[in-house]
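A.,

Following up on our hallway conversation. Structure tokens first:
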């Protein structure tokens, strides 16, 4: 359904360093960059997430978040650990979320600008 999503960020270098670290365990890489933007997606493909340098950021409120697909529970844990090492804040440690389903395993963090992001796998280990 979605082609890509863009986040406005205050410090492009800080945000790119954060997203390099948290998206790598999930298999996503930088697919383009310039002085005003950095895009992430699958190697050889287009961007699915674009970070854009802006002078002011307005973070969406409660109820908005972006969930990145993981292929294993280990990737979910690695995403969370990388986030905490690179300026993110915990918003839910890695683990099963029985309220969301029997196999829903996720980790939730705030990125350096305050966006709510998640890594998730919804399938048997």
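Then the amino acids I'd put at each of the 125 positions:
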């Amino acid at each position: 359904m979605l082609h890509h999503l863009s986040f406005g960020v205050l410090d492009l270098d800080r945000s790119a360093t954060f997203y390099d670290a948290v998206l790598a365990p999930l298999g996503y890489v930088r697919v383009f960059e310039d002085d005003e933007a950095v895009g992430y997606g699958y190697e050889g493909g287009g961007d699915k997430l674009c970070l854009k340098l802006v002078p002011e950021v307005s973070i969406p409120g409660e109820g908005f978040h972006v969930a990145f697909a993981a292929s294993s529970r280990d990737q979910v844990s690695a995403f969370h650990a990388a986030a905490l090492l690179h300026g993110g804040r915990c918003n839910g440690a890695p683990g099963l979320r029985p309220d969301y389903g029997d196999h829903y395993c996720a980790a939730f963090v705030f990125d350096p600008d305050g966006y709510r992001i998640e890594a998730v796998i919804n399938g048997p280990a």
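The chain has one domain: 5-122. Curious whether your intuition agrees with the design.

B.
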